[in-house]
Each structure stands twice: as structure tokens, then as C-alpha cells.
What we know:
Elements: H1 4-28, H2 34-60, H3 70-86, H4 90-114, H5 120-140
Amino acid sequence: MENSDTVKLLQECDAGTKMAVASIDEVLDKVCDQTVKALLDESKRRHEALGNRIHSLLVENGSQEKNPSPMAKGMSWVKTNWKMGMEESDATAADLITDGCNMGVKSLHRYLNQYKAADQTARGLCTELIKTEEKLSADLRPYL
């Protein structure tokens, strides 16, 4: 990786995939509807596969992975547990994950704009991650 924009974009995507997997894990065992559970399982697998590809590129080029910020993870955990504690339902889980997807899409677009010099591979993985987030959000709308 010859430029820092590529590394930085991949690191942000790496953190994003980890955040998505952790968020899905937070609600997965509380979901009752088998279709919702299957959507979340499939999206978790897609996020993990993307994360593995991103992580491999970072390692290949001697770069460090990036974890989600402890503040973001903590706030997500508090919000999830508070909302699920108030009403543990598939609709609440869909709402939480949809909110997370929307925040992820917004952040990823911001990083694409910020790291304009990132190579096409990194930009392509980021775009693929955006599409994965958008698909999950759209798939969960009927359960809101």
C-alpha cells in the first residue's frame, strides 16, 4: 500500500465490520422470528468475510488493524441493552440494527470522501461494505 489514504480507509472499514458484527451479536439471541434471525446471520457472515479480506490486506502490507473506538462500542452496548430491556422484540432489534446500518453508511461515505487518494481495491471494499449495510437496512424495514 503505497499511500496512507488506502491504509486509513481500510482501517476504518475494518473497524466498521467489527462494530457491525458486535452489534448483530448483541441482538441475535434476542430475536424470535426465524426470518429476521436468518437475515442477521447472513449479514454477520458477509461482514465477517469482508472484515477478513480487509484485515488480510492490512496485514499483507504491514499495517495495523483498527478496532471500533471503546466509546462507540460502549454507547452502542448501552443503547442496545436499554432499548431491548424496555421492549425485547424483533421490531426493537430491527430498529437498533437499522440505526447502526444508517450510521455506518454515513461514516463510510464520509471516509470515501476524506480518503480520496485510496486505491481502487480499498475503495471497492468500502463500497461493498456500504452496499452490505444498505441491504441489511432495507431487508429489516418490514420488521420495524
